[in-house]
């Protein structure tokens, strides 16, 4: 085989190898379910936080009087084993062994924390408390009121291969219509869960062609999962009990399905240490979350928690007056609107979008409003958590030129003026380099031909 043929073969084989080993054609992902605390799979953080009786609350969120269960340094990573509330609530018998067992799940496939929490004497009022198992809070060293907590979601891994989708009476987008039965009966309790007449749909997941899918049993329907944490927040500066259901200005149950692996959430810090918490893990959720719940299921999640001091330039929008959650992905900025009235939540999200474009990019407010109308989608985060959510998806790619211009201006300011024009020098160097390349190619072929003639 001659030299040119060898080079061509190497290029072809390399390209083929890249195709063969592309993740989309990789062998089925092997997760050693269930991911209990003694299972080190995806246990990647600098710190590990299980959902034990010492590290959780059930149905309410931290406030300024809450004691942290752990303290970490800003910038460190934290792996949290979160627990879904579905399968342990009163209308499911508050007994995950029996509930999941009825759906063919063996006891050793059920999370130990779920069993422990359900069997505990934690005071949880099914009718009046929130349903969520809330893990934390975690103090971050140096966090002070007025700072911002940057929460980077590094990984999200299913802890079990199943979840639950629930619809309960007087809740959801159609509270007077579903479930389609006569409603709760007298005597409904954890001992008589069937009398609630609520609907909970056991939903296993299956790995098919490189992707996990949720399975609607008995209907031959499946949908891809895209895990995210429904609840991420910091403590609110109050002494009152904070219900876990409605999202607030410090985060909480925001249920934004775009905050998946690789995304970032910014939260305004109101108390010393920040007191970060998380919960309400989801395998998948449609915009609106109309039935009441998403595909609720436990996740092992790794975060990086970083304190941004008041005024830090990396804080989105007005860095000195950051008072509301804000999301970000590689491709989008995500301003968040919240209100009990969905129309007001839409207005809130729109105002926050305009303010962000003005503060972050120096955009004229009227032009920002026009741009948002033409190019930005506003999605219904959820309509089922008392306080409703709308979030905008501002596409970063639309601002590439503006960002480059801003970077150039900042560079000129920091360097004391415009950079010298080096276009002529660049052209000369390109021509010089091209000449050297041609000389090298000619020398190579001269050497090959000389060797051939000597044989």
From TrEMBL:
<feature type="domain" description="Gram-positive cocci surface proteins LPxTG">
    <location>
        <begin position="413"/>
        <end position="452"/>
    </location>
</feature>
<protein>
    <submittedName>
        <fullName>LPXTG-motif cell wall-anchored protein</fullName>
    </submittedName>
</protein>
<keyword id="KW-0134">Cell wall</keyword>
<keyword id="KW-1133">Transmembrane helix</keyword>
<keyword id="KW-0732">Signal</keyword>
<dbReference type="InterPro" id="IPR004304">
    <property type="entry name" value="FmdA_AmdA"/>
</dbReference>
<keyword id="KW-0572">Peptidoglycan-anchor</keyword>
<keyword id="KW-0964">Secreted</keyword>
<feature type="transmembrane region" description="Helical">
    <location>
        <begin position="428"/>
        <end position="446"/>
    </location>
</feature>
<keyword id="KW-0472">Membrane</keyword>
<dbReference type="InterPro" id="IPR019931">
    <property type="entry name" value="LPXTG_anchor"/>
</dbReference>
<dbReference type="Pfam" id="PF03069">
    <property type="entry name" value="FmdA_AmdA"/>
</dbReference>
<feature type="signal peptide">
    <location>
        <begin position="1"/>
        <end position="28"/>
    </location>
</feature>
<keyword id="KW-0812">Transmembrane</keyword>
<dbReference type="Pfam" id="PF00746">
    <property type="entry name" value="Gram_pos_anchor"/>
</dbReference>
């Amino acid at each position: 085989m001659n030299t040119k043929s060898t080079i061509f073969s190497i290029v072809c084989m390399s390209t083929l190898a890249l195709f063969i080993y592309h993740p989309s054609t990789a062998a089925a992902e092997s997760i050693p379910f269930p991911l209990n605390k003694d299972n080190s799979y995806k246990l990647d953080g600098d710190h590990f936080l299980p959902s034990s009786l010492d590290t959780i609350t059930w149905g309410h969120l931290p406030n300024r009087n809450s004691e942290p269960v752990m303290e970490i340094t800003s910038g460190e990573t934290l792996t949290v084993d979160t627990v879904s509330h579905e399968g342990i609530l009163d209308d499911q018998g508050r007994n995950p062994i029996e509930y999941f067992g009825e759906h063919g799940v063996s006891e050793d496939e059920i999370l130990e924390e779920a069993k422990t929490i359900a069997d505990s004497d934690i005071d949880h009022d099914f009718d009046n408390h929130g349903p969520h198992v809330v893990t934390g809070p975690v103090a971050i060293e140096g966090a002070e009121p007025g700072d911002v907590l940057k929460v980077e979601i590094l990984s999200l891994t299913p802890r079990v291969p199943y979840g639950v989708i629930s619809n309960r009476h007087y809740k959801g987008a159609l509270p007077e219509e579903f479930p389609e039965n006569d409603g709760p009966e007298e005597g409904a309790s954890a001992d008589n869960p069937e009398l609630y007449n609520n609907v909970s749909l056991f939903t296993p997941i299956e790995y098919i062609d490189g992707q996990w899918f949720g399975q609607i049993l008995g209907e031959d329907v499946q949908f891809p999962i895209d895990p995210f944490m429904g609840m991420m927040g910091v403590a609110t500066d109050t002494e009152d009990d904070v219900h876990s259901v409605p999202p607030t200005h410090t985060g909480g149950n925001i249920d934004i399905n775009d905050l998946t692996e690789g995304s970032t959430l910014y939260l305004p810090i109101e108390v010393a240490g920040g007191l970060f918490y998380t919960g309400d893990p989801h395998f998948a959720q449609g915009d609106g979350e109309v039935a009441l719940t998403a595909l609720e299921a436990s996740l092992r999640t790794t975060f990086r928690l970083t304190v941004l001091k008041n005024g830090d330039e990396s804080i989105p929008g007005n860095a000195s007056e950051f008072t509301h959650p804000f999301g970000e992905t590689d491709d989008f900025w995500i301003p968040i609107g919240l209100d009990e009235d969905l129309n007001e939540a839409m207005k809130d999200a729109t105002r926050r979008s305009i303010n962000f474009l003005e503060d972050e990019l120096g955009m004229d407010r009227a032009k920002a409003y026009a741009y948002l109308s033409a190019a930005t989608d506003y999605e219904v985060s959820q309509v089922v958590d008392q306080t409703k959510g709308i979030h905008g998806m501002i596409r970063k790619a639309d601002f590439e030129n503006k960002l480059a211009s801003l970077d150039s201006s900042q560079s000129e300011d920091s360097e004391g003026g415009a950079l010298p024009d080096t276009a002529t020098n660049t052209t000369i160097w390109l021509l010089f380099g091209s000449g050297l390349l041609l000389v090298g190619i000619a020398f190579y072929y001269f050497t090959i031909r000389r060797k051939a003639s000597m044989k």
